[in-house]
Amino acid sequence: MSTATINVRISAAEKSKAEAILSALGLTTSEAIRMFFRQIVYTGGLPFELKLPPETLEAMRDAEEGRVEPLTMEEIHAQLAAIS
What's the pTM value of the predicted model, to 2 decimals? Predict the structure, then answer.
């Protein structure tokens, strides 16, 4: 059986938190990733439901119904800077 390597970049904090949870479950990171990929193949997709947060769904409805204020590029940049 041939193998392949996967490289993924995530934040150090996220990696540390995930590894602590996996360790408590008795799994290594590699074992968990292999399990995840097996489930993708088995289910033919992601093995869990993707959900948007309620505030995102509300914002999407507002946009579809025209209940939004137009923003300038400067305002958009300011908002993005505030959450980065």
Answer: 0.62
